[in-house]
Amino acid sequence: MAPAYLFLGAGLEYGRLIEKLSFYASPVTFKTTFVLDNDLANSGAFGVNPVIFDMDGNLLREGDNIRTEFGFLLTNQYSNEVS
User: Is residue 50 part of a domain?
Assistant: First the structure.
């Protein structure tokens, strides 16, 4: 799992029973990013805090494996036959 994402939110969906178009809005959403590969986590990949070394190269703090964000989620879906 490098990365894995978990979204938790409450919202409303419009158009669920409409064939081609739907919208989903969640004004309260928590997104958590999991980076379980320590090499990627130590490099700061996918927005997690990277490893910190002092001036002599000694390890001060390991890189984080989890990043949590709070925000707004808006998604939509549209389907149409191309050919």
Answer: yes
- Structural domain boundaries enclosing 59: 4-78
Distances (CA, A) of 30 to 7, 33, 34, 71: 6, 10, 13, 6
Q: Which residues contact 69 (CB under 8 A, 6 or more apart)?
A: 30, 31, 32, 33
The whole-model pTM stands at: 0.71
Distance CA(1)–CA(33), nearest Å, equals 10
Mean pLDDT, the chain, whole residue set: 90
Q: Residue 74 — pLDDT band, cuts 50, 70, 90? A: very high
The count of domains in the chain is 1
